[in-house]
Here is the input.
Amino acid sequence: MELNTRLQNLTVVGAAGKMGSGISLLLALDMAYRALENKDRTYVLNLVDISDTALQGLLRYLRDQAIKDAERQTTRLRQLYADREDLVENGEMIQAFADEVLTHVRTGKTLALAQDSTLVFEAAFEKEELKIGLYKELAALCPKEMYLLTNTSSIPLQALAEASGLKGRVIGYHFYNPPAVQKLLEIITPADCEPELREAAVAIAKNLRKTVVPSNDIAGFIGNGHFMRDGLHGLKEVERLAKEHGYVKAVALVNRVSRDWLLRPMGIFQLIDYVGVDVFQLILRVMEKYLKDGLHSPVIDRYIEMGVKGGQTSSGAQKDGILQYEKGQPVGVFDPDTKSYVKIDEAWTKESDALLGAHPDPSMTWKGLQKDSEREAKLRAYFAGFKNPSTLGMQLAADYLRASKAVGQRLVADGVAHRDEDVNQVLMLGFFHLYGPINSYLD
Ligand SMILES: NC(=O)c1ccc[n+]([C@@H]2O[C@H](COP(=O)([O-])OP(=O)(O)OC[C@H]3O[C@@H](n4cnc5c(N)ncnc54)[C@H](O)[C@@H]3O)[C@@H](O)[C@H]2O)c1
Here is the structure.
């Protein structure tokens, strides 16, 4: 079936969620432009979720974002609306485009909306049984040509496809958060994926201006294959340091080193909170089910039992988790023994400074280096000093770098990633790292 025909009737399942709403936006904008360019064709975008309130919020979000997009695209829109003499002012044209976007959208709580769809994007909860149930229903409802592109972060596609009767018709389409902004798209292609689906997946990604990194169909794929093990390394370091410094302090130390010494945007525990401690546990469980590789953390289970979950509020603010936050910045650490947060005050910071030793070069920061044209040379010179660490901070950072590199290399050795560069690109684009984990800084 021709891709242009497929693109005339699309469905997003889980459309009002964090990922679903971004995917819906990308597809809605693309469809509106397509419709303006192909006036003889009919285009439909079905957005399915389980909550009417959330779907109404989604429609408002789509309208607001369509207006913002149109404001950036006035030259293109002028050409597309050349025959609309009634659209004199730019403001009128922008409103017309927002209307165009919503004209093609149908929202609802039932999968029946998808019955004519030949491409379905799924971004419902990360629960295998739920996804299989949805796919079975879609397989029964949709045309037999229907292809399914799932945003799953960890579940092997082959398992989902086989259990739902969609063998060869499911592909992993792993957008990163937020999908409308993040350039990276990890495409996970199961061995028996139909060639037409492979090609369609890449062509759509190109259309959406995404940078594609291919991954093999092994639980966790590249992104979580690295992140989960990186997180487990941080937790193991805490366990070790806790014997000497106590649990709470150990968490703070590892979090600090993994941000400030490794020059990452967030410390490892802040990142786990950002993703959600519950999501971290869920993904670990999926990976352990399929890989049987000791991917388990009793500490994470304990946090969840105590209701320590992290994640974000509906407005995007960081909720407390392993760390406590004020204005998005960590200000405390959860103490599982007292079930309360211990504040990181000035005295604490001084104490941890003394333990870690001076930062090797305070001028080196994640933020400052992002657009630095000499970044690579500076990173190389900075990390060269970590070969012979003289402080606890440098030692922890050097161990972290080596662990992170070993995880990356293993992803290639296990066939999850095709090459070192793919692992590095996922970490740099998807996790905003300044450098890939597979590097020669400590060689
Ligand atoms: N959040 C991330 O950073 C991220 C990144 C990459 C991939 N993912 C993956 O994307 C998917 C969605 O994650 P999310 O973070 O957006 O979750 P979310 O909880 O924000 O959204 C899930 C949405 O699915 C809807 N849903 C649940 N059951 C449904 C059903 N039966 N029918 C229709 N809709 C249903 C929910 O109402 C919700 O709106 C998961 O597979 C997750 O692993 C998430």
The longest strand covers residues 329-335. The chain has two domains: 3-215, 223-430. The chain has 18 helices and eleven strands. The radius of gyration is 24 Å.
